[in-house]
């Protein structure tokens, strides 16, 4: 899964939700390029439930 590398997407997602967009989130654990695990990473899906 490609990383968006967006430092604060939650603020943008909140703004979109306030304007009526359906956005779901799935919390995941992802590994970076060096193999380090990052917990509670959010996968945001616009307009439908996340496929995972």
What this model shows, in words?
This protein has 52 residues and is an alpha+beta fold. The chain has one domain. The chain is 19% helix and 37% strand. The protein has a two-stranded antiparallel ribbon with strand order 1-2. The longest helix is centred in the first third of the chain and has 10 residues. It is elongated.
Shape: elongated
Mean pLDDT: 87
| Strand order, sheet with most strands | 1-2
Give the strand content: 35-45%
Unreliable residue stretches:
none
Helix content: 10-25%
Taking the alpha carbons of the first and last residues, their distance comes to 12 Å
Total individual domains:
1
SS-based class:
alpha+beta
Count of individual helical segments:
1
What does the radius of gyration come to?
12 Å
Succession of helices and strands:
HEE
Q: How many beta-strand elements? A: 2
How does the major sheet shape up?
2 strands, antiparallel
